[in-house]
Amino acid sequence: MSLNYAVVGTGALGGYYGSKLARSGKSVHFLLNSDFEYVKQHGLRIESVQGNFNLNDVQAYRSATEMPKVDVVLVCLKTTNNYLLEELLPPLLHSASLVILIQNGLGVESKLAEQFPNLQIAGGLAFICSNKTAPGHIRHLDLGKLILGSFNLTDLKVLQQVVSDFQDAEVPCQFAEDLYFARWQKLVWNVPFNGLAVVLNSTTDRIMAQEESRRLAQEIMYEIVDGAIACGVNLSHEYADEMLAMTAKMPPYAPSMKLDFDLKRPMEVHAIYSEPINDAASNGFEMKKVAVLEKQLHFYNTKRR
Amino acid sequence: MSLNYAVVGTGALGGYYGSKLARSGKSVHFLLNSDFEYVKQHGLRIESVQGNFNLNDVQAYRSATEMPKVDVVLVCLKTTNNYLLEELLPPLLHSASLVILIQNGLGVESKLAEQFPNLQIAGGLAFICSNKTAPGHIRHLDLGKLILGSFNLTDLKVLQQVVSDFQDAEVPCQFAEDLYFARWQKLVWNVPFNGLAVVLNSTTDRIMAQEESRRLAQEIMYEIVDGAIACGVNLSHEYADEMLAMTAKMPPYAPSMKLDFDLKRPMEVHAIYSEPINDAASNGFEMKKVAVLEKQLHFYNTKRR
C-alpha cells in the first residue's frame, strides 16, 4: 500500500516530518501560508543534528482547495489554529482518508470528531526540539521520535503503514496502543517547560541550572503525573525524573510556547493546560500548581492581544 | 512621656512615617544612605494624597555611630537588609529602647531576638501605597494605616505612647493585640500582589482587570488564609474578598517588590513567601500555589545577581 500525504501547517513539525517523508520517496503535498513563495522557489531547508538536507521541487500549495485528495493528512498546526480545520480539511479528504493530529495537549481529537463525525482520526506526539528559523528553514536541534495512536479508527492498517513509512524515512516512529496515555505522557514535559520558559522568560538550560526552578519543574511534573493517574493513566514519578534527567542533557532550548510568546503569537494554553486541568478535576484531582501556571499564561495571552 | 525616635531606612515607609512624626513636633533622627547629601541640603519632600509637605532641617545622619541613643527605633529597611541590624542598632540603644520592625513577612522579630536576646521588640505593619521616587522624595499614593504590636514586651506603655504619637501626627495607627495575626493578615494582600506584579510584569490594576489573573490573586489569597488558619490565626475568606474589593478601588499601583525587581534590588522572597510556607507546613498545611510563586521569584532573584 503506497500512501500519499498532505501536511497542513508546514512549520517546525510539519516542515521537518513532511520533508523526511518526501525525501524517502513518498508523495507529500505541503500547505503553506506566508512561506509559500519562498518554498516554491527555494524548497525546504532542513538543518538537522542528523545531517542537513534540502528538499527541492516541493509540492507546495497556498490553498487547500488547490490540493489533491490524500490518504493521510498530517495536521501540524498549533492547536490555537484548529478552528481553521473545518475549512481546510474537506478538500483533502476522500471517503477513507486518515487525519493525524500531531499536536500537543488533550482534547483535540474529540473536538475534531464533533465537527467531522465520520472522520477516521488519529493523534500524534512529536518528541523533538525543532524551530522554524526563517521562511522554509527548519532547524532540528535534538531528538525526533514520533508516537502515533488511534483515536477512533475502525481499522489500524493505514496508521500502521504510516508508522512504517516514517521508519523508512529515518524517523523513529512508534505505534501507541493508548493515545490518551501518550498525550498525558507528553504533558509531563510540556506543561512545566513551556509555561516556565514563558513566565520566567528563560530557556530549559537556565531553568535546570537553578535549584529552585528545577525543583518547581519537578513538582509540576509530579502533579501532572498525579493528575494522569487520577484519569486512569498509568504514569509514575520515576518517568518524570527520567524526563528531568533528559532535559538536563538537552542543549539550551526555547520550547515552542516561548517562541510563540516572543513572536506575539497566541499560546496553546487551552490544549496544554486547561484541558488536562479539567480532565483531572472531573476525576476528583485538583492540579493546583498547574493551575497557577495556566492563569499566568492566560494573563500573558490576553495582555498581548 | 516624650519619646525620641530613630528611623533606620529612610525610604518609602521610613521617610513617610518619620516625616509625619517630625512634622508633628517629635524629635526624629533619620539614618540615610545614598540620599544623605540631598536630604541634608533640601530636606524630605512628601507628595501625599493627604496634602504635600516639606520637612526642612532634617536630623539626618549617614552613620548610626553618629546618632544619639533613642527611646524608639523604627526599622523601615527591606527585610533583605536585616543582616545590617547587628551593626546598626547598638549605637542607637539605651537600656530601655524599643525597636519596632515595620516590615512585611514573618519571622523577622524572632531572628532579631536571637541576635539581641534582651532587646524589647515590637513589630509594625504599614497599609500604605507609597514609593520613593527620587532622593528625598516620597510619593504617598493611597491608604496609610499603621498597625503596631508587641513581640516580647514586658511593658506596653512605650508602644502605646508610640501609637498615640502617630495618631497625633495624623497617621491612623492601631495597637494590635496579636502581632502574628496582624502579620498574616497583611500577607493576604502582599503575597498575591507582590509576586504576581513581578511574574506577570504588571501593576495591580491590570491584574484586577483580567478575569484569570484576578481569580489567581483570589485563589492565592484564600490559600494564605487557609495557611493562617492552620497556624491558629483566625482569618477568613471574607477578609480576602474585602482586600480584593479594596484593590479594585486602588489607583494603579506597583507593589514594593515590583519596584525592587525593576530596580534590580533583591526581593523579599524569604520573609514574605518562604517563612509563611514553612510556618504553614510545620502546621500540616501545604501552600501549593504560594510555593509556585515563591520558586518563580527565587528564580528571578538569583538570575539577577
Question: Can you give keywords for this protein?
Answer:
homodimer, 305 residues, alpha/beta, Rossmann fold, N-(1-d-carboxylethyl)-l-norvaline Dehydrogenase, domain 2, 10-stranded mixed sheet, 23% strand
Can you walk through the features of this model?
The first copy, chain A, has 305 residues and is an alpha/beta fold. Chain A folds into 2 domains: 4-177, 3-Layer(aba) Sandwich (Rossmann fold), CATH 3.40.50.720; 181-303, N-(1-d-carboxylethyl)-l-norvaline Dehydrogenase, domain 2 (Orthogonal Bundle), CATH 1.10.1040.10. The first copy, chain A, is built from 12 helices and 10 strands. In chain A, strands 1, 2, 3, 4, 5, 6, 7, 8, 9 and 10 form a 10-stranded mixed beta sheet that branches. In chain A, helix 4 (108-115) links the parallel strand 7 and strand 8 (120-134). In chain A, helix 8 runs antiparallel to helix 9. At the A-B interface, helix 8 and helix 12 of A face helix 8 and helix 12 of B.
CATH topology of the largest domain in chain A: Rossmann fold
| CATH A-level architecture of the largest domain in chain A | 3-Layer(aba) Sandwich
| Number of distinct helices of chain A | 12
Compute the number of structural domains of chain A: 2
Radius of gyration of chain A: 19 Å
Q: Which residue ranges of chain A are poorly predicted, with pLDDT under 50 across at least 5 consecutive positions?
A: none
Element-by-element helix/strand order of chain A: EHEHEEEEHEHEEHEHHHHHHH
Structural class of chain A: alpha/beta
Shape of chain A: globular
Quaternary: homodimer
Note the beta-strand portion of chain A. Answer: 15-25%
| Count of DSSP strands of chain A | 10
Share in helix of chain A: 40-55%
Distance between the termini of chain A: 46 Å
Q: Class of the largest domain in chain A in CATH?
A: Alpha Beta
Q: What's the name of the CATH homologous superfamily of the largest domain in chain A?
A: NAD(P)-binding Rossmann-like Domain
Largest sheet of chain A: 10 strands, mixed
